[in-house]
Design goal:
Blueprint (H helix, E strand, L loop, with lengths): L1 E5 L3 H11 L4 E6 L2 H9 L4 E3 L5 H6 L7 E6 L6 H9 L4 E6 L5 H10 L4 E4 H30 L4 E4 L6 H13 L7 E5 L6 H9 L5 E2 L10 E5 L12 E7 L8 E7 L6 H11 L6 H14 L9 H10 L5 H8 L5 H13 L1 E3 L2 E8 L5 H10 L6 E8 L2 E8 L6 H9 L4 E4 L3 E7 H8 L4 H17 L13
Parallel strand pairs: 1-2, 1-4, 2-3, 4-5, 5-6, 7-8, 7-10, 8-9, 10-11, 11-12, 14-15
Antiparallel strand pairs: 13-14, 15-16, 16-18, 17-18
Helix pairs in contact: 6-9, 7-9, 7-10, 9-10, 10-11, 13-14
Length: about 475
C-alpha cells in the first residue's frame, strides 16, 4: 500500500519514514524546497508542492487505495488540505495531531474535520515509551536485589502458611531471579502445603517447600517474602530484606527492598516483569508455574485483573506447558469439600444477596475459602462470608463480585483490632485467635454465629462508603 504523508516537520518526517518502511511505500509532501533537498539527500522519498492545491495530488499520481497522513500541528487549519485531498479522489485520510491543545480546543479541532480518522501522536508514542521506561526502572531495582543477595550463603524465600499457586510460583521465580539453587535459596513456609490442588502443583513441578520455625529464621543471612508481608507472621518476622507482594501494603515491619503493587492480580505478574526486565531465561517449569498462578489468582481474569496480568499471561503462555496446567487443575471437587459445602447449605443464610455461613471446626483452612467461592456462583448471590475454626484460629473468608463495597474493608472493619485482616475489593480474609474473638463477640453457638455474620454484612453494606467508620460495639 502507498502512503502519502503531508508533513512539514523534519523530525516527524524522519520518524515516520523509519517506522513505515518497509511495510509501506512512503512519499512525503512538503512545501519547503530547502527541507525537500535535505530529505532527498538523506534518502527520503519526497515531493514538493502546495498541499492545499488539488493539482499537487494529481501530479503525485495518487490512486483510490492511497493512504493519506496529514500532520495537524495546531498552528494552522488543515481543512483546506483535507478538502484538496478529497477533491483529488483521496478517501483514506488520517489526521495525525502533533500540537498541544486543551480538551475543549482539541474537541473543536476534531469536529471541524469530519469523516477522517484522528490519531494522537502522544497516544501512539506513550505505550511503548512508558513500557520501556518502566522496564528500565524495574531493571535497576532488580539489579539492586541481585547485588544485595549475591554474597549471602543462606537465603530463605518465605511463603505464607499453606502456600497457594501464586506463592509457590513466586518463590520459584524469585529463586531464578536471584540466580540461586535449591541448596542456596530455600523456599520455605511455617505451615506447609496441604490443599490437594496445591500439593498436585508442587509435586508435578517439583517445588519443594521446607518447613521453617521461628527459631530457624535466625539461621538465614537474607530473607525474602513473596505473596505475603512480614506483618502476617504475628511478630515472628519484623524485618525482611526483600518483600514482593500484590496485597495492600501493611505497616508493622521494615524492609531493605519492597515491591508492593496492590493493583496487580498476582505476585507472579510482578515477578514476570522482573524476570523480563533483566532478560533472565524463564524455563518451561517456571513459566508453567507462573501461568497457572496468574490464572488461579485472578480466577482466569474474572476478578481483580490488571492489563499487566493479561500481558504477563500472554508472554508466559508460549513458554509454558499447557497440557501440564490442565492436569494440575484437575477436578477440584472432592467428597471432603462437598461435606463442608453441604454443611454451609444447611446452616447458612441468604439475606439481601449476601450468603453467610459458619462451618464449625474444620481440619484444614482451605475448606473455608473453597465454600465461599462455591456459593458465590449461585444465582442472586453477590457476597459470601464464610467462617470456621481451624485449630485455635477463627477464620473468615469473604468473596464478592467486585463492583460493590470492598471486601478488605469489611474484614478490617470487624476483625482488624483483634487479629490479622485484609484483602482486595473482591476477596479478603481474617484470622483471629478464638479466645480474642470470643472476648469481643461472646461465646456464640453455630446458628448465632451465622446470624451475627449476616448482621455484620448488613450493617457494613448499608453504611455510606465515605463515612468514617467507628469501631463496632457489639452486644
Amino acid at each position: 500500500m502507498r502512503v502519502l504523508a503531508i508533513c512539514q516537520d523534519e523530525l516527524l518526517i524522519r520518524s515516520l519514514d523509519a517506522v513505515l518502511l518497509p511495510s509501506f511505500e512512503v512519499d512525503f509532501l512538503v512545501d519547503s524546497r530547502p527541507l525537500a533537498r535535505r530529505l532527498h539527500d538523506a534518502g527520503v522519498q519526497v515531493i514538493t508542492g502546495d498541499p492545499r492545491r488539488v493539482d499537487t495530488y494529481l501530479k503525485a499520481d495518487i490512486s483510490p487505495s492511497t493512504c493519506f497522513i496529514i500532520e495537524d500541528n495546531a498552528r494552522r487549519s488543515v481543512k483546506k488540505i483535507v478538502s484538496a485531498v478529497r477533491d483529488s479522489g483521496g478517501t483514506l485520510i488520517y489526521l495525525l495531531h502533533t500540537g498541544s491543545r486543551n480538551g475543549k480546543s482539541a474537541e473543536t479541532a476534531r469536529n471541524a474535520v469530519n469523516d477522517v480518522t484522528h490519531l494522537e501522536l502522544a497516544e501512539l508514542v506513550r505505550p511503548t515509551l512508558v513500557t520501556e521506561l518502566s522496564r528500565s526502572m524495574t531493571r535497576a531495582r532488580v539489579q539492586q536485589y541481585q547485588r544485595y543477595f549475591a554474597d549471602a550463603d543462606r537465603v530463605l524465600i518465605l511463603l505464607h502458611n499453606d502456600p497457594d499457586p501464586d506463592a509457590l510460583a513466586s518463590g520459584l521465580a524469585l529463586r531464578n531471579l536471584l540466580r540461586r539453587t535449591k541448596t542456596t535459596a530455600i523456599i520455605g513456609a511455617i505451615q506447609g502445603v496441604t490443599r490437594p490442588e496445591n500439593l498436585r502443583m508442587a509435586n508435578m513441578l517439583d517445588i519443594h517447600v521446607e518447613q521453617v520455625t521461628a527459631g530457624s529464621l535466625q539461621e538465614f543471612e537474607r530473607i525474602a517474602t513473596v505473596d505475603v508481608q512480614p506483618h502476617y507472621f504475628g511478630g515472628l518476622l519484623n524485618r525482611a530484606d526483600l518483600v514482593i507482594d500484590h496485597h495492600p501494603e501493611q505497616p508493622g515491619y521494615s524492609a531493605v527492598f519492597k515491591d508492593i503493587r496492590a493493583d496487580y492480580g498476582s505476585t507472579s505478574t510482578i515477578l514476570t516483569e522482573h524476570l523480563r526486565a533483566v532478560d533472565v531465561n524463564i524455563s518451561e517449569r517456571t513459566a508453567t508455574a507462573m501461568l497457572y498462578a496468574i490464572k488461579s489468582d485472578t480466577l482466569f481474569f474474572a476478578r481483580h485483573t490488571n492489563r499487566v496480568d493479561l500481558e504477563a499471561f500472554t508472554f508466559l503462555y508460549p513458554l509454558a506447558d499447557a497440557a501440564l496446567i490442565r492436569k494440575m487443575e484437575g477436578a477440584e471437587i472432592t467428597l471432603e469439600r462437598l461435606k463442608y459445602v453441604t454443611r454451609a447449605s444447611q446452616s447458612g443464610t441468604l439475606r439481601e444477596q449476601v450468603f453467610s455461613a459458619f462451618l464449625g471446626e474444620a481440619p484444614r483452612e482451605d475448606f473455608i475459602p473453597y465454600t465461599a467461592d462455591f456459593f458465590l456462583q449461585l444465582e442472586d448471590v453477590k457476597w459470601t462470608i464464610v467462617a470456621g475454626i481451624v485449630g485455635s484460629s477463627f477464620i473468615v473468608s469473604v468473596r464478592n463480585l467486585g463492583y460493590s463495597r470492598n471486601a478488605g474493608e469489611f474484614v478490617k472493619r470487624w476483625f482488624g483490632d483483634i487479629g490479622s485482616a485484609g484483602g482486595h475489593r473482591a476477596m479478603a480474609k481474617a484470622v483471629v485467635p478464638v479466645d480474642r474473638f470470643r472476648q469481643k463477640f461472646g461465646d456464640l453457638s453455630g446458628t448465632e454465629l451465622t446470624a451475627r455474620i449476616a448482621e455484620m454484612a448488613e450493617q457494613f453494606l448499608h453504611e455510606p462508603a465515605t463515612e468514617k467508620k467507628k469501631e463496632a460495639v457489639l452486644k
